[in-house]
Specification:
Elements (H helix, E strand, L loop, with lengths): L5 H7 L5 H7 L7 E3 L5 E3 L2 H5 L6 E7 L9 H14 L4 E5 L4 H5 L7 E2 L2 E4 L1 H5 L5 H21 L6 E6 L3 E3 L9 E3 L10 E3 L1 E3 L4 H8 L3 H10 L1 E5 L4 E3 L6 H8 L6 E5 L4 E4 L14 H10 L2 E5 L4 H16 L5 E6 L1 H7 L12 H21 L4 E6 L6 H13 L3 E5 L1 H4 L5 H13 L2 H4 L10 H12 L4 E4 L1 H12 L7 E4 L19 E10 L4 E6 L18 E2 L5 E2 L3
Parallel strand pairs: 3-16, 3-17, 4-15, 4-16, 8-11, 17-18, 18-19, 20-22, 21-23
Antiparallel strand pairs: 1-2, 2-14, 5-6, 6-14, 7-12, 9-10, 12-13, 14-15, 22-23, 24-25
Helix pairs in contact: 4-17, 7-8, 7-10, 9-10, 13-14, 14-15
């Protein structure tokens, strides 16, 4: 049987005019700024002028990812469509895709099968230009920093201690480490420099955590870009860069409104990675979605040890949010990979491999239930090769933790395949009172080292965190500067609970090695770099860009 690709399914969809979607989302047309027929930005003034109360918030997360795929974004969209089908007033809040993965490995990030947001090509490519604005603001600050040094360096900045990097929204390993300012005095001061991918920029984090334009400006001003010869931090405010950056970000800060294949309103805004950043869509979009629907379904990047942890410990803490229920997504195929099975041999029934791999899923579920004290359901994306015995095994193991398991077929059936999951989510929201029981995994009063230890022990299942001598000095200095009470944003491989991507399943008796700590004072957290994590990915041997094309009529192919 021949299956349509994701882009073919999306291109067959008869989209509704965005004004109609806005009406469904209770957004009056006067608050819309149209970007063509099917996209719009929403004026944040609506938040101040609506009398609607916030609805329920549902977080979708997942087990540790594998090349077999889990389908977290697909499940998020399919669940929202399922809630709509059972009569609920629902919105969905998602991140915008980065061009890095679009042209690198994934080829697209707007859901899959019959659970997608559309227009799929636009969302995956330039969309409404938000990422370009973030990159421009980031690089304006970099230019003003180097220009300040060139024009006399009144702030006494030590060029060897510049922490601000330039950025580009593309996987380009060649730019990780560069030397610039060459060519003589007129061309700047020669120094070591580098690029991050735009989604790892602190401006992306500031953008996503800001509550309004005034908060954005305050956060931008606090960003530390360098240190002086006297070891004092230099901020964007010191460089007088805040106003210009805010001007570049003004329109981008307005949440974007699109739709699912089934016409459910979708607020798609912001897009930090969860392995090297905090992995959540914007606070403004989440709050707006919650005001415009009785139920809002959102997702956080990668596994629950990354995206969900940062959603709960950073975003919810800063924004005063708390989810009413959590969905943890997994697949039989991925669990078998965690049990040691090669990707080529995942189809045959293999209960032995499933038994070895399922501790990975159970640790994520236990974290949601026993660390954060949130009601939880496991959603299993069912593949045709999954056997009843394999499904029953997962159901029985999750039941031992007091958590129900629901089969999801949203990739093949859209919202219809998400109705059972939707009913369980509604039950959890109405009966379990997650907002009242929710707790964080650590307190802000803990030291930087203790926070890292608590994350390593409670969330990752390890013995603790080990700081290199350099990281230890950084922790002491950041504490002395008054940053010790900030939450921690761990940059860690997405493929393991540990900092070693080869350690699959639910490894034990390991430590997390922290090699670098840096403050993102504007975002309001400390970034901890672990293992071999990089903030500028590279393209794979055969990038998705080789297969993306556009025909003479302007029809794009190759996104999937």
């Amino acid at each position: 049987m021949a299956y349509l690709s994701d882009i073919e399914i999306a291109q067959q969809c008869e989209m509704k005019p965005i004004q109609e979607i806005a009406k469904t989302a209770h957004v009056p047309e006067k608050y819309l700024e149209l970007y063509g027929r099917y996209k719009a930005k929403v004026d944040p003034a609506l938040m101040k002028e609506t009398d609607r109360k916030p609805g329920k918030l549902v977080l979708v997360t997942a087990m540790t990812p594998t090349p077999a795929g889990e389908g977290k974004t697909t499940t998020t969209i399919g669940l929202a469509d399922g809630l709509k089908r059972i009569g609920k007033d629902v919105t969905v809040a998602l991140r915008e895709p980065s061009l890095g993965p679009v042209f690198g490995v994934k080829g697209g990030a707007a859901g899959g099968g019959y659970a997608q947001v559309v227009p799929m090509e636009d969302i995956n490519l330039h969309f409404t230009g938000d990422f370009h604005a973030i990159g421009a603001a980031n690089n304006l600050l970099a230019a003003m920093l180097d220009n300040h040094i060139q024009q006399g360096n009144a702030l006494n900045i030590d060029p060897r201690r510049i922490t601000w990097k330039r950025c580009v929204d593309m996987n380009d390993r060649q730019l990780r480490f560069v030397v610039d300012g060459l060519g003589g005095k007129a061309n700047g001061m020669p120094r070591e420099d580098g690029f991050d991918i735009t989604v790892a920029s602190e401006i992306m984090a500031v953008f996503c955590l800001s509550s309004d334009l005034a908060d954005l400006k305050e956060r931008l001003g606090r960003m530390v870009v360098a240190y002086t010869y006297e070891d004092q931090p230099v901020t964007a405010a010191d460089l007088k860069a805040v106003g210009a950056m805010a001007a570049l970000l003004r329109d981008a800060l307005k949440p974007n409104l699109v739709q699912t294949l089934e016409g459910t309103p979708a607020f798609v805004h912001g897009g930090p990675f969860a392995n090297i950043a905090h992995g959540c869509n914007s606070v403004m979009a989440t709050r707006l979605a919650m005001r415009m629907g009785d139920y809002t379904v959102t997702e956080a990047g990668f596994g629950a040890d990354l995206g969900a942890e940062k959603f709960l410990d950073i975003k919810c803490r800063m924004a005063g949010l708390a989810p009413d229920a959590v969905v943890v997504v997994g697949t039989v195929r991925a669990l078998k990979m965690h049990g040691g099975v090669d990707k080529k041999n995942l189809a045959p029934e293999n209960l032995e491999a499933l038994e070895k791999g399922i501790p990975n899923l159970l640790r994520h579920v236990s974290n949601m239930k026993n660390v954060y004290h949130l009601p939880c359901v496991v959603a299993i994306n069912r593949f045709p090769t999954d056997t009843d015995a394999e499904i029953d095994f997962i159901i029985s193991k999750c039941r031992e933790l007091g958590v129900n398991t629901v089969l999801s077929t949203v990739w093949a059936e859209g919202g219809k395949g998400g109705e059972a999951l939707a009913r369980e989510v509604v039950r959890l929201c109405e009966e379990e009172h997650g907002r009242e029981t929710f707790t964080f995994s650590y307190g802000l009063e803990d030291t930087i080292e203790n926070k890292l230890n608590l994350l390593a022990q409670r969330i990752y299942g390890g013995e603790g965190a080990v700081l290199t001598p350099a990281a230890q000095k950084q922790a002491e200095r950041l504490t002395a500067l008054g940053y010790g009470s900030l939450p921690i944003c761990v940059a860690k491989t997405q493929y393991s609970f540990s900092d070693d991507p080869a350690k699959l399943g639910a490894p034990e008796h390991f430590s997390i090695t922290v090699r670098n700590l840096k403050v993102s004072a504007g975002a309001g957290f400390i970034v901890a770099l672990t293992g071999e994590i990089l903030t500028m990915p590279g393209l794979p041997k055969s990038p998705a860009a080789e297969r993306i094309d556009v025909d003479d009529e302007g029809k794009i192919t190759g996104l999937f």
